[in-house]
Design brief:
about 400 residues; five-stranded antiparallel beta sheet; four-stranded antiparallel beta sheet; 11 helices
């Protein structure tokens, strides 16, 4: 058998065939990396531009007006520049101050209430407070006058350059232990509401006359507002108290969430030092509640749609009995929606307790009405519209 001799192998025969590169391969090799590099450069240029907005104050304005993430970088840069080495130039820029005030006005007028809108309003108030020119003031004054948002109003007040100094000095005076503890005498006790560094919300307390005359009198706490706020997890601000006379055992306590005009009213037992379960109580509203006797009160509040004036105050006064649902209380008087408001009050002398209603047509003028408790009818008093009824002496009005 004859063997056929083998031909030697060519090294090139072992390699795969060479083909020209495809378009997809060229895109992956050159175009995609190029796009990535371009994006990185654009982002860097954008941040570089934002970081140097201080060179053009109007650039701050244009960027702050845009509802995008760049707004917050501009806000940070402006804050840094205002407090930086060149801040005095920006703080005296009248056009920039006016523009920032305009942005604040526009943001409030937009009606937006979200977190970002709130943050922007607070920031603008604080930024305007850094300026040294009068053009920064009008927008802040408008926010304080409007008083339509607690946080913005507070920020506008605190923006005043002297606020911190005034606050510190005022707080020192208000919390000084050298203050005279003014009191109201009820029976054998002298009642006083006291605030200091330890009791920032305050305590309602009492003592006797003999104890009060001492250099360091001992006081009995009736209600600790700080403890109550912590217990109920509420931002209570004490607004006053009306004690039932002549028994002096019950009180109507007025507490406001955060110090607003709107308050809650709650019946309180003085001997037991606690709120009365199922007692007289009003939810948060611009209200008034006053005693006639232990089981009867006069009330004006927000009873629902159509019961307030155009100013947002109650216009309907009712006679409210203990245990009676508020919706079933007897209506005594209705003012007009154009009035400022209608409020009941009582005056007590040796002959008894007398009920009245003040109908404010304006803040300075109005009418007074006497409530006949025998027939629950209301009679207008013939006194001048600008007169103020303060007390009774015998059968004479003061």
């Amino acid at each position: 058998m004859v063997e056929t001799p083998q031909q030697p192998l060519n090294p090139d025969d072992t390699l795969p065939p060479v083909e020209p590169p495809s378009v997809a391969f060229l895109v992956q090799l050159f175009l995609v990396p190029g796009l990535i590099v371009a994006i990185i450069v654009c982002v860097w240029l954008a941040f570089h531009w934002l970081a140097h907005l201080g060179n053009d104050p109007q650039a701050y304005v244009r960027t702050l007006r845009r509802a995008n993430e760049g707004r917050w970088q501009a806000a940070l840069n402006l804050a840094n520049d205002l407090r930086g080495p060149g801040g005095s130039r920006l703080k005296s820029d009248t056009d920039l101050a006016s523009e920032l005030g305009s942005i604040l006005d526009d943001e409030v007028a937009s009606g937006r209430t979200g977190e970002q809108s709130q943050t922007l309003r607070l920031y603008l108030c604080r930024a305007l407070g850094e300026f040294t020119v009068p053009e920064a003031a009008p927008a802040l004054v408008r926010r304080v006058d409007a008083n339509d948002d607690d946080l913005t109003t507070q920020a506008a007040i605190e923006a005043h350059p002297e606020f911190a100094k005034i606050q510190k000095e005022t707080l020192k005076i208000l919390q000084s232990n050298d203050r005279i503890p003014y009191f109201r005498r009820r029976g054998e006790y002298l009642y006083n509401f006291w605030q200091d560094a330890e009791h920032t919300r305050g305590i309602w307390r009492r003592t006797t006359w003999e104890e009060y005359k001492k250099d360091d009198p001992e006081w009995e706490t009736v209600l600790d507002i700080d403890a109550l706020a912590e217990e109920e997890n509420a931002n209570w601000v004490y607004k006053g108290v009306e004690v039932l006379e002549p028994s002096l055992d019950l009180a109507i306590l007025r507490l406001s969430p955060g110090g607003k005009d709107a308050s809650v009213y709650r019946e309180f037992s003085i001997p037991e030092k606690k709120f009365v379960d199922g007692g007289f109580e009003l939810k948060e509203a611009k209200s008034d509640l006053t005693w006639i006797d232990k089981d009867t009160t006069l009330v004006s509040t927000d009873y629902g749609e159509g019961t307030l004036t155009e100013s947002g105050y109650p216009r309907i006064v009712k006679l409210w009995k203990r245990g009676q649902p508020l919706c079933e209380a007897k209506t005594l008087f209705e003012g007009e929606t154009s009035d400022v408001g209608c409020w009941p009050f009582t005056i007590r002398n040796s002959e008894g307790t007398f009920g009245f209603i003040r109908r404010s047509k304006t803040f300075y003028k109005g009418h007074y009405y006497h409530i006949n408790q025998e027939n629950a009818k209301v009679y207008q008093l013939e006194i001048p519209e600008d007169a103020r009824l303060s007390d009774l002496f015998g059968n004479q009005l003061l």
